[in-house]
Amino acid sequence: MLDRLAPQAPDALLALIKMHRDDPRTDKIDLGVGVYRTGQGDTPVFAAIKAAERRLVDEQDSKSYLGPEGDMGFVEALMPYVFGEANPTMGGRIEGMQTPGGTGAVRLATALAKAAGVTRVHMGTPSWPNHAQILADLDLEVAGFSHACPDGTADLDAVLSAIRGAGEGEAVLLHGCCHNPTGIDYTPEQWDAIAAALAESRALPIVDVAYQGLGHGMEEDAYGLRAVLAAVPEALVAYSCDKNFGLYRDRVGAFYVMAAEGGQLPAILSNAAALARANWSMPPDHGAAAVRLILRDPDLTAQWLDELDTMRTRMRQVRDRLAGAGTAGSVDLTPLGIQNGLFSVLPLSKDQIAALREDHAIYMAGSGRINVAGLTEANIDKFIRALAEVTA
Ligand code: LMR
To answer: What CATH number should be reported for the domain whose range is 65-296?
Structure first.
């Protein structure tokens, strides 16, 4: 029976990791999967995480099961950062649970939306490819709208008309900050307009926040999410700590729900717990426990925020450097200076992307997405030269 299964192509983005690893050229450049790299090209464990892990080894006295909600200390400690210190539960209307990474959170949010009656999800395109894969796996219909204008700014009209056209049984999936793959975020004024449109709409907002702190700062990057939550009666939030705590393979995420009334939360979360149990039973503990220890200790929190600042500053420097180069061949690099986070998309053809890989050992996603953190003092000139050569 199993021989009926047709072979599937490997995930294109994850396949790039292996292709880059297997390339023997010593001057190869990895601009593929979204991991932060230092100016030396490394992806080290945060010092704050190392310190928390040491404490965990000393103090953790059991690895017995927790439950489908995972580490609730972690889930709650994160809330002031996500929803704001002043009112982290929106008056008792927000609660959450831990998930295996941001992917688990997106899966749970969309599966719960489906269980509540959502059949159609409006989503800006391009988007993180796994959004579409998860929605397809759940048999949810996807209605795409354009995310970006050709000048490298966000297409506000498209998102507003998608929201205004969305009815009962529909959801709108938004990236909270550091849009993946374009790096093009809505401005605070645009978020206010989006929040106002959502307030008028019957559509359920689902906000994916996978890169908080990597754009302009933890508070600044939460502007859009908080504007939406302040305007609407209910919403779902998918959160990832994989990037802003550097915990990628430990899979640390959280799912939050804001209900119209606090009294609705137990029933809603019982559904989320049932979905989690059927999907992964309970999330992996280690990384979330380390984040909890950091967020409950002011010294470790300060150390973590400092490390996050260093990451953000370096990515901003790379972006400034690229934007300062102006153009490389036919590619205008200036919009990268106002974009945010790890990613931007370059207007390259499949052949040009292949030529960069084959002739210059430069690896990027097939969409033209680059991870700017893969560029360093040592390789950025080579990258700009190669770009000019393949697009000349
Ligand atoms: C990425 O987009 O590179 C990351 O979010 C990693 C992933 O899981 O796709």
So the answer is: 3.40.640.10
> Would you tell me which CATH number, out of the four given (3.90.1150.10, 1.10.287.3240, 3.30.1700.10, 2.60.40.10), belongs to the domain 2-45+300-391?
3.90.1150.10
d(CA 197, CA 3): 50
- Determine the pLDDT at residue 10: 86
pTM of the model: 0.96
Annotated active-site residue 210? The verdict is yes
Supply φ then ψ for residue 28, to 5 degrees.
-70, 150
- For the cut 90, the answer to whether the pLDDT of residue 151 exceeds it is no
Look at residue 121 and give its three-state secondary structure: strand
Pocket test for ligand 1, best of 179, 180, 239, 363 (most atoms within 8 A of CB): 180
Q: What is the mean pLDDT of residues 50-68?
A: 96
**Three-state secondary-structure class, residue 331:** strand
| CA 295 to ligand 1 centroid distance, Å | 25
Contact residues of ligand 1, CB 6 A cut-off: 13, 33-34, 128, 130, 180
Spot the catalytic one: 51, 52, 128, 361.
Answer: 128
Q: How many other β-carbons are positioned within 10 Å of the β-carbon of residue 59?
A: 9
Q: In angstroms, rounded to a whole number, what is the distance separating the alpha carbons of residues 371 and 365?
A: 9
Categorize the per-residue pLDDT at 329 as very low, low, confident or very high, splitting at 50, 70 and 90. Answer: very high
Instruction: Give the residue among 352, 365, 336, 359 at the shortest CA–CA distance from 391.
Output: 352
Task: State the ipTM, two decimals.
Answer: 0.93
Ligand 1 closest atom vs CA 130:
9
Give the C-alpha distances (Å, rounded to integers) separating 53 from 133, 184, 189: 34, 35, 40
